[in-house]
Design goal:
Bound molecules: zinc ion
Radius of gyration: 22 Å
Low-confidence stretches: none
Shape: elongated
Largest sheet: 4 strands, antiparallel
Number of domains: 2
Structural class: mainly beta
Strand order of the largest sheet: 2-3-4-5
Number of helices: 2
Distance between the termini: 59 Å
Mean pLDDT: 91
Oligomer: single chain
Length: about 150
């Protein structure tokens, strides 16, 4: 199990290097990605009387569901985190900042391929594999159907 905590003592600088497996990290619930394979975090924490500076590079591979058809899509992350942080207590848990790095980099939309046709809203068939039996009329979004009835 990888250790994400930096124990503080009298020193001013804390270089760190962590290798971990995707499953080792506790992910924030708002992150839609899954981590896969081996991840690397390498950086430094510098303390001074006026500010605490944390910077690190994070590298690894993520899996997102395709925004249209939900098929898993792999994406590499290579990100540099650099920020002032508040320290409360005698240790710093990097889990929070690693999660921040993942959250900042979440794509608003990710597609398995440019022209992904997505899933049929009626029967759920993956339209990339061919058309389904639904007629165009049946393909009206059920939420719009409700609106139509109200008008
Ligand atoms: Zn797709
Ligand atoms: Zn269908």
């Amino acid at each position: 199990m990888a250790i994400f905590k930096i124990q503080l003592n009298e020193r001013k600088t804390y270089p760190f290097e962590i290798a971990f497996m995707g499953d080792d990290l506790t992910l924030d619930p708002e992150i839609t990605a899954q981590l896969t394979g081996e991840w690397f975090v390498k950086g430094n924490l510098r303390l001074s009387d006026t500010e605490n500076l944390l910077n690190f590079d994070i590298k690894g591979r993520l899996i997102y569901p395709c925004s249209r058809c939900l098929k898993p899509v792999e994406k590499d992350l290579d990100y540099h985190f650099d920020d002032h942080i508040d320290i409360d207590g005698d240790s710093v848990d990097l889990t929070e900042f690693i999660n921040d790095s993942l959250f900042i980099n979440e794509p608003t939309s990710i597609l398995c391929r440019e022209d992904c046709k997505g899933l049929c809203p009626m029967c759920g068939k993956d339209l990339n594999e061919g058309p389904c039996g639904c007629t165009p009329e049946e393909e009206i979004d059920p939420r719009l159907e409700v609106l139509k009835d109200l008008l």
